[in-house]
Amino acid sequence: MPGTTSKLDIHPLHDSFAVEIKGIDLSTPPTDAVFDEIRDALHEYGVVIIRNANFPDDKAQIDFSALFGEVEKSKWRNPHMRSLPHPEIFDISNLDEKDQVVTNSNEKRTTAIRGNALWHADGSFNPRRTYVSLLRAVELPPAAMGGHTEYADARQAYDDLPEETKSKIKNLVAVHSFVHNRKTANPDSPLFKDINVLDQPLARHKLVPVHEPSGRDMLYVTSYAHHIEGMDLEEGKNLIQELQSHAAQMKYVFEHHWENAGDIAIWDNTAVLHRATSGSYEGKFRRDMRRTCVMDSSSEAYGLNNPDAAKDQANSS
Ligand SMILES: [Fe+2]
């Protein structure tokens, strides 16, 4: 049970995963003991919410993230986004390069926003996967205007599958593509319409990788997963869709409602899936969210990809 072995004030947010840790102030770095307990909670519950964590700036967010491992840097900055000074900070805001609220006419931004609204794990399209993501609210729209983040317990979803299904899928490999997500989310967009996914960079990851810190298997059925290796294309797509629908059932989903500037959400992409949700604030109110990502260092990090291929990867989106 949460809190029985921990000194931290841990509160469950869902029956099987996701917790809030209360009373943690990250305006100064945590002690080793406190950080170890945060990481243990993350490994056990997949999602950790800390309200009013209050990182004073981007650098503090990066430094805290680095306690989990190697922080990803974006190698390419979208010219339609703000130029934030640290390459480790991924801009998840609805603000454009002039610091103005993005409107629907900004195709390059809205297609990305729609892509993030599909169930995914950050960076699954890369040869080396993403482990931890940390999202920080810097500026939020008025309450009750949407913009929640949803999480699905992909370990519990796997556990609950019939044994027959488990043995059928256990050793399968999914082939992931960044463009596949964008095409699915934006079927009519001229930006992706004529691109053949199979001509794009592809990454191979197990459909059921083990989450090493807990020893539990997870359903790595992200919306970047395009097909199953060695399986008829349509059959593989259908299987991915079927498993994703299974993992996204309401009973496995926790919806996080952002409350205050200063709140953070930390999730383990090797244990849970997530997606952004839309809201009535879009096109009207500022929503400044900043994310850091940490590379996976587990034995599943590179999937079945050549580690050399990870040197030039584009990193998370
Ligand atoms: Fe994401």
Automatic annotation (TrEMBL):
Residues 10-292 form the TauD/TfdA-like domain. GO terms for molecular function: dioxygenase activity; metal ion binding. Keywords: Dioxygenase, Iron, Metal-binding, Oxidoreductase. Gene3D superfamilies: Clavaminate synthase-like. The keyword Nucleus does not apply. InterPro entries: TauD-like_sf (IPR042098), TauD/TfdA-like (IPR003819), TfdA_dioxygenase (IPR051178). The keyword Secreted does not apply. Belongs to the TfdA dioxygenase family. PANTHER family: (3R)-3-[(CARBOXYMETHYL)AMINO]FATTY ACID OXYGENASE_DECARBOXYLASE, DIOXYGENASE RV0097-RELATED. This is Alpha-ketoglutarate-dependent 2,4-dichlorophenoxyacetate dioxygenase. The gene is tfdA_0.
